[in-house]
Each structure stands twice: as structure tokens, then as C-alpha cells.
Amino acid sequence: MGFKGVVNNTFLALGLPGGAPLYEFPSDAFVPGAELTPFAEGVEYIIDGLTKWEPAKVAKGKKKIQAITVTGEDYLDALTKMNNLFLNNQWGDSLPLLPPTMEKVEWIMKGTDLSHNEPIGKIMPSGRTATVGALAVNLAMTGGRPEHLPVLIAAFKAFCDERFRHHMMQATTCSVNIAGIVNGPIGKQIRLNSGYGCLGPDAAHPAGGCIGRAMRLVQQNVGGAHPGTGTMALYGGPLKWANAIFAEDEVGFPEGWRSVSEDRGYSKGSNVITIHAVATAVNITSIHSSNAETTLETMHYLARIMGSDYGNIFLNYYEDSVPGVLIVPRGVAQGMIDAGWTQETIRQFLWDNSQFPWSVVTSDSDVFRRTKDTLLKYVKEGEPWPISVKPENLMIAVAGGKQSGHCYWMRMGCCPTQPVSMEIELPKNWDQLISVAEDDLGPMPES
After folding, report:
1. Which of 32, 34, 59, 162 reaches 20 to 30 Å from 88, CA-CA?
2. What is the spatial distance between Cα 321 and Cα 378, in angstroms, rounded to a whole number?
3. The Cα angle at residue 123 between residues 122 and 129, in degrees rounded to 5
């Protein structure tokens, strides 16, 4: 049914020999009234594959990797030919890339004290190991800088955490991408946007685009998540190009407000990235919190949006699962606090008012059939179904422009059991890297 490439990749990733017999049923055999002959025809082939097939012997040893050389009449011609070569081999994301020369990669590697060959983890569905050097190569192609590398390394450590279940995210038909929230002083130091246009694009804050796009390249170039063969996402989507990597607006926090990383157990001021798999992005308009009345209206509005599409929420419903990421600007956060709300009461209200009636859940026979056993662990039969097991699971990040008027909701996609946070480790030469960045890019932009 279209998953042939995913199956072949996964087979190899599990350490099984290639060339195993595989029978792919035609997708039109699964529509009502379809001819079922293909099923009968495939039975003998499947039986033979399970009982008679033996793998061919493969010579062991490491495959020698050679550098690619591209020449042209001048630099621009060589760059054009390099990008054409990448397109011909289905490398990259189809947008123009910068050449990851040895010199450029070594420059990027100044952003870590780890070695080129340090393994980060296996990236599915191909099962190839992402090394620090591989991350540096892909970051170089996006125009990234050495100070971006620590965030990229931490992001992929989180990506490879078993709780994130990236093997499902990479292969799914769901159009899902990564949302990455950075906390700590590193966000400002590397010019990662937390304010206006924080989800990009923004030339004044290039880090999010470079890091997010490098993540996408690693997902494809190392993990084999190519459309139609490695990833079966039906639509892809704009956020897949560079994911959504941003910083929390910690400068704009109301007094006493806890960051996403603090809520997840990290100390204040720690450099941390938290990643989640998100499938939809909704700009929520007409949001205000100028007084108690408008704040309450806003709270109801947010709850309606959060409770409008259960999508993957109910299909991945666990004790610590998070239904999505709600982003509010500093003006809304401050207005809520001024109106007497706290982070706890905000979550409780949103949790209470975004629940789905039992009749709605049970009317969706496919979702209910697949999730009923899980549901009844947490909810009594006949009661409304909340979008998370408990209110504290709701994730609220402060970011965006200084005024109110809008919020943003990114509903979870396939298929983490929960978001994953990872501390960002800085190299010994960190202060020097930031000093060089200021020489290269000019004064630090205002928050």
C-alpha cells in the first residue's frame, strides 16, 4: 500500500539482510467493492517467502567513503553543478545548498569538544548512525555556524530518545515536523528568535532556520526519510522545510513565570532544548487580555481551538503525553497574570474546557476502537475525554511579538509518548565563538 520503501529501509535498519521477498498489495484493493483477487494471488508468494527464501551472503567490512569533487568554469558554475548533482541523487531538500567543504565542516566543528566520529544515535528508517561530523556537514549546507552546533547535537540526542519514537514519525503518513523550544541564555547568544516572526523567516535571527533545516536534512540524508519511499507523509507541509525551532521570550516573562524547561525539571538559566512532534499549526486571532473579561474570553477561545481536532492526540494517549504546544506572546501572558490567573489555573481551565464529549469520541468508530482500552485507564465510561491525562501536561510557551492579538497552537502529530528535553552542552571556547559571531553578524539584535 505504498510503504515498500519504508519496509525495505526498516528491514536493513534492523540488521536483516537485504533482498527479502516482499509482496505489496495494490492500494485500490482496500476500497469498498474492490476486487479481492490480488489477496489470493499474493498468498503463495508470501508463503514461499516465509518458508523457502534464504538471504545471500554479503561480504563484511566497512565501505570506503570518498569525497565528491565538483568543478566548474567558476565558483558559481561549480555551485550550480553541485546542486544539480544533489537533485539527481535525491539528496537534500530540493532547495539550494552551500557546499560542505572540508574547511567549512572543520569550522562548524569548533562548536563542540566532541570528535567527528562521536555517535549521536541511529536515525530511522534507514538505521544509519548520525555522528557529530554528519550533523556538522548538514549544518554547513544550510549556512549554519559553529555556535549552532551544540543545539543541533542536543536536538538529535532528544530525537533519538526512545520516548520520541522518531521511527514512527519519520515513516508516517501524517504530515508531522519538529517543534523545538530553546531555553536559557544560549537562545539570545546565537540569535535564535523569540519575538516577532519567531517561527521564521528572519534574517536578524538566522539560527532557527539554519538549525531547523539542518535537522530536516539529517532526517533525510542520514535517516532516509525521502517522500514516498522513507516517509509517507501525504502532504509534507511548509514547516517540514526547516521544522520550527525558536526560543522562549524569557525577557518578557511575567514575574514568577516558569519556562518550559523549568516545568520539565531543569533549573532556571539552564540551556535546554525541548522537542515535540507537531502536525498542525493554527494562528489564533482576536486574542486580548486587557482586563478580566477579555482574558476570560481569550481563555475560552484558546480552549475551543485546542479541543477542535484530536488527531493524533488520542492515538498517542499516555500518562505524560502532551497534546501540543500553545504559544502565547508576552502581552497575553502578562494580562493573564494581571487578571489573577496562574500557570496552574490557566492549564486547569484549558484542560477542563477543551474536553471532548463521550458521544463525539464514540461516534468516531476507528479512533474509539483503537483507543478505548487506553481511554478507560484514565476516564470513566460516559465521561468527557480530556486532551491529556492531566492538566499539567499542557505545554505553554511564551514567544512572539510584544503585544497581544494572536496566539499559536501546534497540535501534536505522530507519534511520541511525550516531548523530550535535553541539556545543551557548550564547548570550552564558547565565549570566543560568540565574540566572533558578533564580529561577523554585527551587534546583537534587541529582544
Report:
1. 59
2. 13
3. 45
User: 212: closest CA among 244, 164, 170?
Assistant: 244
Gap between the Cα atoms of 97 and 82, Å rounded: 9
Cα of first residue to Cα of last residue in the chain, in angstroms, is 49
Chain segment 108-167, per-residue pLDDT in tens: 999 999 999 999 999 999 999 999 999 999 999 999 999 999 999 999 999 999 999 999
Whether 7 and 22 have beta carbons less than 8 Å apart is answered as yes
Backbone angles phi, psi at 328, to 5 degrees: -120, 140
The residue behind cell 542520514 is 222
Q: Which residues contact residue 265 at a Cβ distance below 8 angstroms, ignoring those fewer than 6 apart?
A: 421
Contact between residue 84 and residue 97 where contact means Cβ atoms under 8 Å apart: no
d(CA 162, CA 222): 18
Strand locations in 311-419, DSSP E? 324-328, 395-398, 405-412
Question: Which tens digit of pLDDT belongs to each residue from 146-156?
Answer: 999 999 999 99
| Side chain identity, residue 146 | P
